[in-house]
Amino acid sequence: MRQGKYPFVIGFLILPVTLYSVFVIAPYAQAFQLAMTNWRGIGTPEWIGFENFQRLFNDTAFWKAVQHHGIILLALPLITIAIALFFAFLLNVGGGSKGGKRVGVRGSAFYRVVFFFPQVLAVAVIAVLFQMIYRPDESGLINGVLTKLGLEPIFFMINPNLALWSIIAVLVWQSVGFYVVLFSAGMASIPTEIYEAAEIDGATRVTLFFRVTLPLLWDTLQVAWVYLGIAAFDCFAIVAVLSIDSGGPDGATTVLAMEIYRNAFTYGRAGYASAMGVALFFLTITFAALMLRVSKRESIEY
Amino acid sequence: MGPQMSTQTERPVTRPGEHKPTAAAGKGRDRKRSEVRLLSSLGHVALVVWAVIVVVPILWTFLASFKNTSEIFSSPWTLPAELRWENWGRAWTQARVGKFFLNSVIVVSCGVFGTMLLGSMAAYVLARYKFVGNRLIYYLFVSGLAFPVFLALVPLFFVVDNLGLLNTHTGLVLVYIAYSLPFTVFFLAAFFKTLPTSVAEAGMIDGCSHTRLFFQVMMPMAKPGLISVGIFNIIGQWSQYQLPLVLLSNAEDKWVLTQGIADISVNAGYEADWSGLFAALTMAILPMILVYAIFQRQIQSGLTAGAVK
């Protein structure tokens, strides 16, 4: 029956595998090679061993970028998940039970649709949008209002202490809706009987949330944390478009992707930029390993 | 555990399991009711506030696209004196939003078509046929999920350059397909695995070839999965910024929308054409609102499908 299986299998795999090898696997492999050279994009690469990594060690821009990833990695998931959980709970369980089914507060469907919308927009477009919103003079949405009220304008992207947090705020603005929908799906699969039993025992919504919803949602929370962690290691589009001088002021918002891009395509340091890519690779691996460690908690079967 | 559970947070002194007379139970219920009311009104306020935070920036951009510069600077809340469509015209032709938009449509339609075709072919074979190297190829694809694109950005640039595909849509489309394959294969392989074998076997007995079986039997059966991944890929490729920035840097007439909008925002600073920028921004946002309004349910499930899996 399965005659001629191999020609068919090969025929179906040849194109995807070739494309994937040429554009994904080969560049990844080459990145490790190039990281050991001082190649500048032309001529033959010269082998210099670990020199790039030694330089990386003393590169303040690199360490600033790593530090920013650390901040984003903590702040973005914490803030986003907290807000999204709160809203998802209100939208799914907050309305009490009607006819044996848990329902959300009034207008739940509407809120879910509206909250999710920023997820559909490209990050680069959102970055331009917030450039306008954050503008330091009256033409900015926020500072226009503040000036009208007679308050001092806030220099969102100019103040180095504020710039990174302004960027994190935009990321939260975009992500919350997605996680509301994600958590809603998770909450919908929690059996109603558990809520009912808890309510008969006199549990309030606060107790319901902390004692029932949260533990039963653990798996979904883990997924959310990994997703937001991956997002925290990227951030190129938002930093490149929204921040002053692509990662400024004075490196206050720079991220690794930005430094890789700058070194490779502005300074022409292909070898050095690849070394940064490799460093990033190990950071990502470390994050993934840590995540697996930390989140190792018995999930509850129901 | 009695009614104390409700008050446990406020009164930690009361131990669970301690028996209270019925009067206290009634009191607990009253308190619970008022707590419910307070919480739900607070919750409602929070929901409304967040909805405003999401909607207002977009509404504001839309209004500002009809204003002139002095109106933009005077107050963020006043309505434009008239509908200045010339802002839109300037953005569409002079700032070439029209051109960028068309480029995005071309690149994303080719990219998603290629991704879906090649991705489902690979996923199908990997999910339903036993052969040497099956697992190796599968894990090769799936491992691509873990690493960010820009890790290999520098070598990728030179790979595309060596193939003579730099500054071409073909190059960008091929790269989009290659980088969309890991998720597409991962998701669709899981999906093809769930499809019943009986239909496929019946087809084989009827003398259906492997290829025909795939295109005429399995593909239609996998439609829900294909739609989810398709939406995921459309939105992912439409939003791409870094890859076109690197791969199309010297071909301004080939730029995609994200690149174009970011560039217009830089130029708007020099030319002080804020209304033009707002119009360009509106043109980038508006179609997404329309598409989202129509396919809202499919988009939500498509984008979250990967996470729920």
Automatic annotation (TrEMBL), chain A:
Membrane topology reported for the UniProt record: Multi-pass membrane protein
Cellular compartment(s): Cell membrane
InterPro entries registered for this protein in UniProt: ABC_transporter_permease (IPR051393), MetI-like (IPR000515), MetI-like_sf (IPR035906)
Pfam families per the UniProt record, alphabetical: BPD_transp_1
Keyword Protein biosynthesis: no
Record-annotated membrane-spanning stretches: 7-29, 71-93, 113-134, 154-182, 224-244, 272-292
Classification via SUPFAM superfamilies: MetI-like
Domain of life, source organism: Bacteria
Coarse class of the protein's main subcellular location: membrane
Keyword Isomerase: no
Residue intervals of the ABC transmembrane type-1 domain: 66-291
PROSITE patterns for this protein: ABC_TM1
Keyword terms: Cell membrane, Membrane, Transmembrane, Transmembrane helix, Transport
Family, similarity comment: Belongs to the binding-protein-dependent transport system permease family.
PANTHER family noted in UniProt: ABC TRANSPORTER PERMEASE PROTEIN (PTHR30193), DIACETYLCHITOBIOSE UPTAKE SYSTEM PERMEASE PROTEIN NGCF (PTHR30193:SF41)
Name by which UniProt lists this protein: Sugar ABC transporter permease
The species this protein was found in: Plantactinospora mayteni
Automatic annotation (TrEMBL), chain B:
Membrane topology (UniProt): Multi-pass membrane protein
Organism of this sequence: Plantactinospora mayteni
Transmembrane segments: 38-60, 100-126, 138-160, 172-192, 213-235, 274-295
Biased composition (Polar residues): 1-11
Name recorded for this polypeptide: Sugar ABC transporter permease
Domain (ABC transmembrane type-1) ranges: 101-295
Compartments, record wording: Cell membrane
CDD domains reported for this sequence: TM_PBP2
Pfam family, one: BPD_transp_1
Assigned protein family: Belongs to the binding-protein-dependent transport system permease family.
Coiled-coil regions, chain positions: none
Superkingdom as given in the UniProt entry: Bacteria
Compositional bias (Basic and acidic residues): 12-21
Chain intervals for the UniProt region annotation (Disordered): 1-29
Keywords: Cell membrane, Membrane, Transmembrane, Transmembrane helix, Transport
Gene3D superfamilies (UniProt xref): MetI-like
